What does this fold into?
Amino acid sequence: MTAPGTTFYLTTPIYYINAAPHLGHAYTTIVGDAMARWRRLRGDDVWFLTGTDEHGDKIAQAAARAGVTPQALADRNSAAFRESWKQLGVTNDDFIRTTEERHTRVVQDILQKLWTAGEIYLGRYGGHYCSGCERFYTEKEIVDGKCPDHQTPLTWIEEENYFFRMSKYQDWLVRTIRERPDFIRPERYRNEILGFLRDPLQDLSISRPKTRLEWGIPLPFDDRYVTYVWFDALINYVSALGGPGDARFEKYWPHAEHLIGKDILKPHAVYWPCMLKALADALGRPEDELLFRRLNVHGYWNIGGHKMSKSIGNVVEAYALKDTYGNDAFRYFVMREMAFGLDADFSEEAFVARLNAELANDLGNLVSRATTLIATFGGGRVQPPDGVSGAWLAAQPPDLAVELAKCRAAVDAAMDEYAFHRALGAIWDMVGAVNRFVDVQQPWALAKDPARRPQLDAVLWALGESLRVLGIILAPFLPDAAARIRQAVDQTGEAKLADATWGGRAAGAAVQRLSGLFPRVEDKTKPAAGTGAATAAPATETPRIPKDHFARVELRVAEVVAAEVVPKSKKLLKLTVSLGSEQRTVVAGIAEHYAPGDLVGKKIVVVANLEPAKLMGVESQGMILAGSADGRLAVLTVDRDLPPGAKVS
Ligand code: ME8
It folds into this structure.
């Protein structure tokens, strides 16, 4: 694990601009952003790069189909990627385009150096070419005479081309991968490449004759040719830093880590290290100064059990869910659902399930519960406990200081391996511990006994402290929600990981109520209960009553302070509500419609003068109002802020 305060350079692939940004692109860019934010949070000096890959057959063909020049298409579509990442809140430090002069200059410079050093030669080659893949296939790779990827017929092409002497680096590459266990991660991809390298490595054709393709970077030593798109594209990682010799390159390149999907493993794990080794030799520099540090490879998203296909548009639709459910929810789902390195399946149903259970329920409710408890019982302030109550708190289960230390260590280790799913799992363990802490400590019960005020204050302080540290640790993953949490606990300024220690805030703080951080959403993918026709009871069936009958019912606004399931009951929730001057316990048959935390912090309406009644052994001192139709139920709330206890008439 690298020590905090180090330099770090992270790149995503540069995306082809013949398709709109979709789920796959968004995933890599989001995890890249989370990693960049995480390393900045640790205090590292970070440079995070993304961009677009704009040359090659695919782009030329797409432009021809659209009736525009390749450059016009590139300008328009590259802007779509840039805009998309901006909307997602991605914090890239630079955005490189392969049609930029700063890129073509470095590509031509590197080609010239390799040519001069004898690393490139002119040769003759005949092969089966797929224009979709922009590559030749060997006899062994062809399936039924067709491209194994596109299942389209291949074209036999024979031509003179320039070749990079890649084969001579085969032994060196195998040795390097063996000596550096984390050069290609996770291990399954390292093994895949070592397996591939058991067969002889071919030299790499790095040019395309202009007679066949004009849309590329001209070779500096033969202008009848343009550069093969992969040779051009890989160099973006270096050209964006200004190329060897540039101050930015010399600072960041030794710490370079690439992030890619498994589809582009071979160019990154084979061509690219060989190119860099050849460049190091040509420049007379040690190979360590030119090799990247790590290649981090993730798996592929499938959609609803099917392979992602750009043509059906499902990948674009999946990405559009960020607009429906919000950036943070989208980020959370993709990072939590995909075990980094393995394939995963995307479905709206799974998305909504996680959103409701983990974001709305676990995290959102905790924030709402904790801030409401502090507002109600602490007057909106928390104070660090003194020696006696501090010692009492330290002995209370669950021990949140220990839980936090466990969470921090687990997140550190997970992020070192790009295991975003595990990092979030560890943070949710902490969220769960704090929720348990509230259930076990029952601050509303402590509040009933004035002699236990110091313990109540210590519990409230622990809740404030939990939210403070969560607001920091969550920042790389859920930047918007984390900022709102930090604001609610009066933390302004930049979050720093070093501050996420238990008891890190010595002074007291004001805490503001924060509810609805992640509103629950209805699962549209599940059929609604009932027939869909209006089946609410007709409003006029019951006999009319004089007005004063209604006036005998005392309705009041009540604030839900705490809620729990009544043991052994499926239907009942026990709510603790505040009527301003007093607190009441109200038992309501709503557990099939609301999780306990859903209502905490909400202002609802109760019948305050009902005779007490026992339900499953719990005395209910009132009744809440709720509407129902089609098997659905909704608790009545007030749409403007009124103090608890306010009369309803
Ligand atoms: O290959 N699941 O660009 P590209 C997960 N320009 N990630 C996916 C994905 C999926 N189903 N589909 C795409 C190129 N990705 C080249 C790269 S780099 C020097 C040149 C992501 O637009 C993933 O990161 O086809 C994958 O590697 C990348 O998009 C490919 O993007």
